[in-house]
Amino acid sequence: MAVSWRFLNNCLNQDFVNGLLNCQSKSHHWALLQRSNRSLVSQSSGYFELQLIAVQNANGELSDGDCCDGERNTQDLRCSSDECDTYFRVCLKEYQTDVTTTGLCIYGTGSTNVIGGNSFQFKSAKNNQNRNNDGGKIVIPFQFAWPVSYTLIVEAWDWDNGTHSSEDLLIERSVRKERINPGDDRQTIQYNGLTASFEYSIRVRCDENYYGSKCNKLCRPRNDWHGHYVCDQFGNRGCMEGWMGTYCTTAICKQGCNLLQGVCSAPGECTCTYGWQGPFCDNCLPYPGCVHGTCVKPWQCTCEKNWGGLLCEKDLNYCGTNKPCKNGGTCMNTEPDEYNCACPDGYSGKNCEIAEHACVSNPCANGGTCHEVPSGFECHCPAGWAGPTCAKDTDECASNPCAQGGTCIDMENGFECLCLPQWAGKTCQIDVNSCHGQCQNGATCKEGQRGYVCACSPGFVGRHCDIQRNSCASGPCRNGGRCHTLLDSFMCECPHGYTGTTCEDHCKTNPCEGPSHQHCTVAVATNGTQEGVWHISSNVCGPHGRCISQPAGNFTCSCEPGFTGTYCHENINDCVPPPCKNGGTCIDGISSFKCFCPDGWEGTLCDMDVNECSRNPCKNGGRCVNLLNHFYCQCQDNWKGKTCHSRESQCDSSTCSNGGTCFDHGDTFRCTCLSGWVGSTCNTAKNSTCDSNPCENGGTCVGGGDAYTCICKDGWEGPTCAHNANDCNPQPCYNGGVCVDGVNWFRCECAPGFAGPDCRINIDECQSSPCAYGSTCVDEINSFLCVCPLGRAGPHCQELIGIGKACRYSGLQFPHGSRWEEECNTCQCVNGIVRCSKVRCGRRPCLLQRGGAGPDSSAPCPRGQECVEHQFLTCFAKPCHQWGVCSTPDPPPPLHTQCEPNSGYLDNSCARITLIFNRDKVPQGTTVENICSELRYLPIAQTLAKDCTLLILCDLSYSNSDAVEVAMVSLARDHQGDTSLLIQEAASAIVGALSKRHNSTVMLAVVEVKVETQVMPQSVDHLVPVLCVVFSVLWIFCIVVCVWWTRKRKKERERESALEDSTVNNQLEPLRVSLPQHKDNRGKDIQHECKKLMNPPDRTCDGAEGDEEEDGEEEELRRGGMELDKFSTQKCSLAGAQDKVMGKGGVICTTHSAPVKPPHRTAYSPKDNRCKNLNAANVSEDVKDHYV
Questions:
Q1: Helix (H) or strand (E) holding 935
Q2: Is 289 exposed, middle or buried (0-12, 13-18, 19+ CB in 10 A)?
């Protein structure tokens, strides 16, 4: 749709929007304009309408002084007779402090045909502004919440056939910035320019089914499966009769229907579930075949009294049930269904039916006459009695002779009706007081010839004064004021700049605000004041208070009479202390109260006793005595009755009130009252339903007898005032603000970038002058944009980039250092090189031309693309038929990745995010592609995709219908490099962006986010097995060393033990076995024997080879140790302090031995010299060590 409007504007001005499109023809231009208007209106939530009234260009000139057509007359310098071909063009954009006539028309634009010459007017529009007139009318639809503030540029142009350039054909331009609320009334504007003057009217109207001050409240009446409701003038749903619930989808069952055993699909029904029956589904079904049994739960058969058996079919008291014995016979039960009759004298038979002398016992009672008949006897009863023995009193009340709820009392041969208080007569057919209980809301009842008439209190109408008058129905508030209905009048809540009873006064000099601008006001940037800001009221004290600023940024609220609290939101309870006397009920008002008096009391404070004798109720000369809610008549001349009206009885139909029964006691009467009533005439309620204090949260109970009504305090509602009234309905917060409901108050928590009591103020981020070095600041939502001078760049123009080459991109030229948006990416020109972020944008969702609504405002396609249908869009919130995708000249590049939604795949470059939504908050017409496009266009996505390509894929979750699965893939340059850290940062950054409050309606519905990423790097997979192998080898080595050391120590202890035994014996053991035959072993045996005679030495070696050799020799000695013990006959003793042993290779090892006590030796033996003469011994040449 944006393409259509651009085409229109370009046709009217060749230089507009840099000449993006070319004109085709005038006929094609106007056809496209009308088709675009129809399409936009069908999709929008409202429209801005401008109606031209009169245009005057006396000289037929252009704004630059030239003639529209022809040349000036050389004599009088007037333009020729050919007049201007005048048409109008309108540009509607956001509210601008400094209005720029160039740039995009953000809110929309419109144009007319050539509608006149130099001067013309539309008479129908001038005489009747509400009449529809297409001539001179320009309609600009919008599909967003109307922002109230706007800037309007109205231009008059001359249509030329091409002899002049389009910019030279401007006749006059009018610029207006103002505020306007939607409504039917028009605002008439007269503009007088230097060249021409014109008069026009404007108004903003909401489309059908859209309501509210911003046309953003949708309510469409329906009566189908999805709901049964209508919409009031404010767009609130009201359920049809018989339906309830938020969307009126729950049917109200038949009154009295037991909802535990009954259901209904339509109003008034009561369909019983299995096992239950009856009109109200409160009777259970007994077991099939149960004869005389009952049930409490379905399929039971609990026998009634005197019945037994499995199906309660056996009569255990046949005598009591059937009474078979006649003529006074006595019945005796013998067994189930069996009996015997004991007959009196004169009777016999099974049932004593045979009479011998039946009348002997005088069976007829109450004066009846007995006659013997063949079957027994027969009684002839007097009047008023009946039955076989005249024992039954005839019930004259069986025909219900008493009307209007009267109670019938059966008497002998007659009846008496006890009528309700307002009825009298034999059968209660006379209406005594037709006004009783008819008029409501404090109305006064008056009797008339045709019945009663209710004189209603102020603010109420209707036959019974039960309808509150809507004082706002006529729309008394002007200038966009909001009307609130009061009890007997109305109150207008005026917009900023207006005051008065009906918002008729315009505060041009802003006298409505005080000098302090702290918490009581909100500052908005403007150039219209010296301070550069415009202060508007914050309404923090609500409609019943006035804000007073205090030092240190504090404030106090000065409340209107009758209100209190921090924000003047509490109505002062004028019923504390209770002013009403004698049990009266006090109802609190605004600086007032009202007392509802009990019967018998009246007056403002219920302090005046009602004089029941004022109506002269006593007749026939009776004297009336006034009592509390009652009277007493002292009768004269034997008159009787409550009012001395009867000669015969003290009782009549009006003696006892409230259904009481009167009994005559001769000279007085007594009333038997129904439950809940006491007193001599049943005129006082025994227990009030308000005694249990059913009303909660300060509610006032009004009632008596069996019913009560709770009058709730402000902020509470419900039958017992138990529910906090939702002050956030309708939604008072704009621009994504969250409403916090309190008790009779609310607070708006604004989204970033907005402020004010209802979040409708866009904060001017340029107010703090963030742009440096002479750059220009452009305010945006929750951000700003710095337009840097030549040679500067950066968010604040703080980077010095110098002068470089310009860049050409998509046929356009961008200066060095400039930044621009390219679909979902951000690009920058750096010295002739274009650097863009690398987010895969995909095909953008768009709205088809056939109509519909969705979460985005217009969803236009980029330049050169059009919106086409797509068969594979996944719908998340129906209906989605209006969505398509933007066409692309080239097919999208293929995706080669295993990281897809719902695939379960994860690696170093893949992350999965699950977005769980609240379905009630998701806008209708939302697709999964809409949600994915929102993620791709997040600013954080552009920041993360500077070096690596970021791919975001979305699909509906297979496991949760309220969730959307998102897969994020980070593709490194040339598919190389580690992207694990980048993908984790990207997932965390996007989750952080979603957690912040933003202005996207779709993302506000996200209630939970789940993230899955690959935590361990890929190299860890090889490191773990290597570490396990190393630790296993170390453990095995330790075990082997421990076993070797244990065995070594064990053998050394065995050798030391043998040496101690030899020393104690002090002699050499004889050889038990002959020496070995080989001479090669002799040297080893001698060395081992000498070693054994020495204590464990401490060695210090000067070479590693000697150690190794010595260790080898020790091992050999260790193996031959046992042989020496067996073969030697005596052992050598060594007492030298130091023995030097020459090792192989010239390595000298010194052995230090502790002094050893010389053993006691026997006779000298040549064998003992083996240690000394070691060099001479014939040993094997393998033994290289010599002992001295």
A1: helix 928-936
A2: exposed
pLDDT tens string 794-832: 888 888 887 888 888 887 888 888 888 888 888 988 888
State how far the alpha carbon of 415 is from the alpha carbons of 382, 394, 409, 426, in Å: 17, 10, 6, 9
For 93-120, the pLDDT digits (tens) are 999 888 888 889 999 999 999 998 888 9
Place of tokens 């060395």: 1087
Q: How far apart are CA 1161 and CA 1141, in angstroms?
A: 26
Reference 1084, options 1133, 1131, 1121, 1132; nearest CA is 1121
Residue 212 DSSP SS3 = coil
**175 CB neighbour count, 10 Å cutoff:** 15
Buried b (16+ CB within 10 A) or exposed e, 262-275: bebeebeebebeee
Q: Higher-confidence residue: 1111 or 948?
A: 948
Helix axes 1082-1093, 1104-1127, angle to 10 degrees: 100
Q: Give the angle subtended at the CA of 252 by the CAs of 251 and 258, to the nearest 5°.
A: 115
Tell me the three state secondary structure of residue 61. Answer: strand
For residue 764, the model assigns a pLDDT of: 84
3-class secondary structure, 544 = helix
The three-class DSSP label of residue 552 is helix
The DSSP element (H or E) to which 548 belongs, if any, is: strand 545-549
User: What are the tokens at 564?
Assistant: 């209190």
Query: How many CB atoms neighbour CB 727 within 10 A?
Result: 17
- What DSSP letter does each residue of 947-1014 carry, written as one string? SSEEEEEEEE-SS-TTEEEEEEEEE-GGG-S--HHHHHHHHHHHHHHHHS--S-TTGGGEEEEEEEE-
Q: Enter the tokens of residue 774.
A: 């002479």
Retrieve residue 193's tokens.
Answer: 């320019």
